[in-house]
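Hello Y.,

Per our agreement to keep a running log of every chain we model this quarter, I'm adding this entry. I've kept the format consistent with earlier entries: sequence first, then predicted structure.
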Amino acid sequence: MTRRLTLLAPLTATLALAIACGGAAAPTATPTRVAATTTAPATTQPSPTPLPGAGAVPTPAPTPTRTVAKTRGRVVIASSTYADFDPDITRFRSGNKRPLLLNMNDTLVGRNEEGKWYGLLAESWTAAPDKWVFKIKKGVKFHDGTIMKASDIKFTIERELVEPMYVYRGELASNISRVDAPDDTTLVINTKQPYPVWLYRAEVGSAALPEEYYTRVGQAAFSKKPIGVGAYKLVSLELGQRTVLTAFDDYHLGAPQVKDLVLLPIPEPSTKMAMLKAGEADMIDNLTGAQSVELKGDPNYRLITSPRADSWAIQFMDFLDNDPSKPVMNLKVRQAIAYAIDRQAIVDRIYFGNAEPAGGFFNPLVIGHNPNLKPYPYDVAKAKQLMREAGYANGFDLEYSSGVGDQTLTLALQSYLREIGINVKITIIEASQFPTLLTQKKLRGVYNRAAPPLAFADGQQVLWLLWLKIGTWGGWEDEKIMGLFRKVEVETDLTKRIQVLQDIDAYMYEQLPGVPLVHTNALFAVNKKIDFKPTPGNYNAEPLRRISWMPGY
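Predicted structure for the entry above:
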């Protein structure tokens, strides 16, 4: 969709993959191969959420700390995701804001380089069917030197419950009844029902806003001079131009290695590559497959891969109107589109092997991924037959919204659909416009839906935020899917939860509210001075505090 709309305390890393579940029968044919298959490397699935009612919450992984002799140097990052920054975390609209918000601030919990939960502002936590209780770390400082309290996190969550711009407001309001801070080191999230995906929301939505400062100056003034408790302080933000951060020496986990960060919003892949080679950028993201081949073997740069960091699908927004006169409301038309696309050719020719064809809607790193769902085979004859049966032998026009970063994929899809008579008309939309259009339910036709597993690590999140009409950005609903959703949103038994989520993936595979395309790797390039390891399933270079200098630099 342009990037990006774009979000597992250890029970065991492999539990979700070990449970084989049923569901819809996959097509028996296999995709047409255009060359030797190259797929993303196998990756261990992040460990699932500690679910209320599923036994005692496991001890979180150790919180990483860092001791450095000296914080020094500057790193310039050119990214396609930096155009939509807003330093107020309660106005979090899309995953594009994560690199700013989650480096100026910390949340209750985070995930380490192995994808396991650890405490950031929380020292420990417990869960019950009607509450989550967090013990808050003492002595954490805001950037102005004041001490953070549990009531500051309470203030943040209460603002999110009423802030129209907050992307998860609907879900929070449906699940949270009250937030308490009985003392400076205790936070209680009281829930209306079991809330098994709360930690995922807490990973973004439980930052500490300084209640006294925010209340005194107001939202507008705070956004101009924000403070947090994160590893970096804001120096300047020129929206759409550049953002400058500097290290916070009193950061509670230890100062980061890199002193200054310059974040540049650069959507064009070719421009980012030119900046890297000219020494104008030290790190770039979202490399194309061709660019990865170009840099491979060059001793001046290193390629960093985050496997299966995104999942792409076509999404049919005409479900919002439920107008039977729209061609895509006919299931046979949606099936025809699914059969018309050569996913393996896309993997080989667009991503140069840095992807794999998608069967179901949930990324393999997502809890609830159904491994029994195979990619729809590439079968143009069958697609044309389905178009005839649907009454569209002569085709139709289809409005297709695309962002700058996914134009290559969109053009390939335009070509495939032309073969079955669908005339795709492409409209390019700026990345920053997508969250507003989707939240206001104004987008129609189709567009490329991205679902990064770091942001959507549980299938319930994928379904609610991206696909369901009751969610923030979706448009689809029917009686069966709503029944499955109501069942899974309160299911706390991990085995049963995975079963329901796999049934949801299978039902989506049958009904096709969209068409799954590919699971892609995220590709970063850095110069030889930079060391960085992304969190599994992450398409962003975050957390930025993890960036360091290679030995000798």
